[in-house]
Design goal:
Elements (H helix, E strand, L loop, with lengths): L3 E3 L5 E3 L2 E2 H8 L3 E5 H18 L4 E6 L6 H9 L3 E4 L2 H9 L7 E3 L6 H10 L2 E4 L2 H14 L4 E6 L28 H9 L4 E7 L10 H19 L6 E3 L17 H18 L6 E4 L3 H4 L3 E13 L3 E6 L8 H5 L5 E3 L9 E6 L8 E8 L7 E4 L20 E6 L2 E6 L4 H5 L6 H7 L1
Helix pairs in contact: 2-9, 5-6, 8-9
The structure holds ligand LLP.
The site of ligand LLP has 24 residues, from α10 and α11.
């Protein structure tokens, strides 16, 4: 959880930093990342795997949740590996100093250029489909002296209860090889000298509160692992994906990291025993549950509007461009007023963003103290899939981000300026001339 308290001025303090002072220094909207909380989550995953799993284990961060140099640096320093899903995420982790050996490259449509980049860096590739498998066998001999190390992603056919946009384990999913194809894939891979299949991967979805699907997955993977033995594949790794949900509002009640790890580790050991398999290296790739709760977004409250007998709006200086989750998935969030922490919660207001559409609502019907323009509204649990999904809609620059720890605050992402917004625009001479 967040390293947060209310200080003597009645202000919210995160990582020992008064949020009002951070806002005065860095402006709003502002992502505030609590380093201690992020490190704690990393350690919880890592240590619980050591406690509950008898074999070798590795936790890799699904960097799609938030990829930037500072975040990758912190997580790397905790000894975790990385899941990347594009050349851009791969580049970011490399620039942050991550050893390619600990990077796993995902994605259902990696381009030939991305595959070449991955092979040259020597990271591991999680192969999703036939085209990729064949492209790799063509690229690999020229780009790498040793066989390219891959994992195969399979569709496990496991349903879970979460938003349909973020389910991936069901058979009708674009990700991974269909189970019907497995033997053909194993056969093909076993005949290739340029690639070496280290393991199998499956991921069932995101923001999941149930433990059952995570408990069922190892059984399915172990069956496939058994099958792989028939083809003499040197498989030593099982990657069970990520997916553990976090608490956004009071009504969310996710299992803890320890509970999740325990269930997964036990299920893998049990399944391996049943199929008489040696314990594989176990990989998990959490994103949201590693970083989601470690960050908040601070906004400045602006105008308000009363719609008699229906609702009161207050508007903030960001919205769907820095947090597209409410408008995309109807996600719910909580907020507080950082400069009025102990005021009574007397108002029911809808917190609107500043973008040009009615759906740009950060929180519907939030319960808050009475607010005034200039107050600082802080939305919690914005570490995952906020900055990484941010846009420049309405030509609004993306916010700055700071990391806070023990009273110190450091800028980790600069605020985008107007100039940044037009930096890559080009005005062809022809258009300039014809305008006059
Ligand atoms: N591994 C794979 C292969 C994945 O596709 C994902 C997430 C993860 C791991 C990490 O899952 P997590 O532990 O974060 O649940 N934009 C959506 C979430 C999309 C998740 C995509 N894949 C959202 O804002 O809710």
């Amino acid at each position: 959880p967040l390293t947060a308290k209310v200080n003597q001025k009645d202000h919210l303090e995160i990582g020992g930093c008064d949020v009002q002072l951070l806002v005065e220094r860095f402006g709003t909207p502002l992502y505030i990342l609590d380093e201690f909380s992020l490190r704690t989550a990393c350690r919880q995953y890592r240590d619980n795997f050591k406690d509950y799993y008898s074999g070798d284990s590795l936790v890799i961060y699904a960097s799609k949740a938030w990829s930037c140099l500072a975040v990758c640096n912190i997580i790397n320093s905790e000894g975790l590996g990385f899941d990347v899903v594009s050349g851009g995420e791969l580049y970011t982790t490399l620039q942050a100093g991550v050893n390619p050996d600990k990077i796993y490259f995902h994605g259902n449509n990696k381009s030939a250029t991305e595959l070449e980049f991955a092979v040259e860096t020597g990271c591991k590739i999680i192969v999703d489909n036939w085209l990729e498998l064949k492209t790799l066998t063509e690229i690999a001999p020229a780009k790498s002296e040793t066989p390219v190390e891959i994992l195969l992603r399979l569709t496990p056919g496991i349903e879970c209860h979460t938003h349909e946009y973020i389910r991936t384990g069901h058979l009708d999913s674009k990700f991974g090889f269909d189970p019907n194809q497995i033997e053909e894939v194993f056969k093909f891979v076993s005949q290739q000298k340029a690639i070496k299949c280290l393991g199998l991967h499956a991921h069932i979805g995101s923001q999941i509160f149930e433990l059952q699907p995570h408990q069922d997955l190892p059984e399915v993977l172990a069956q496939w692992l058994k099958k792989a033995q028939e083809y003499n594949l040197p498989i030593q790794t099982l990657n069970v994906g990520g997916g553990l949900g976090i608490r956004y509002t009071e009504s969310d009640d996710p299992p803890s990291i320890a509970e999740w790890v325990k269930i997964v580790a036990e299920a893998v050991e049990k399944a391996c025993k049943r199929y008489d398999l040696p314990l594989p290296q176990l990989i998990a790739e959490p994103g949201r549950s590693l970083i989601g709760s470690s960050c908040v977004t601070a906004y400045t409250v602006g105008g308000s509007k009363e719609v008699p007998e229906i609702r009161n709006y207050i508007s903030v200086d960001g919205g769907m461009s820095d947090n597209p989750r409410p408008i995309t998935y109807e996600s719910l969030y909580r907020c507080v007023i950082a400069n009025k922490m102990s005021a009574d919660f007397t108002e029911k207001v809808t917190v609107a963003g500043k973008h040009c559409e009615s759906g740009d609502v950060v929180i519907e019907d939030a319960t808050l103290p009475k607010t005034d323009a200039g107050d600082i509204l802080v939305v919690t649990a914005t570490g995952a899939y906020n900055y990484s999904m941010a846009s420049n809609y309405n030509r609004i620059g993306r916010p700055a981000a700071v990391v806070v720890n023990q009273g110190e605050a450091n800028l980790i992402i600069e605020r985008e300026t107007y100039q940044h917004l037009i930096n890559r625009d080009r005005l062809p001479e022809r258009l300039v001339n014809s305008a006059n």
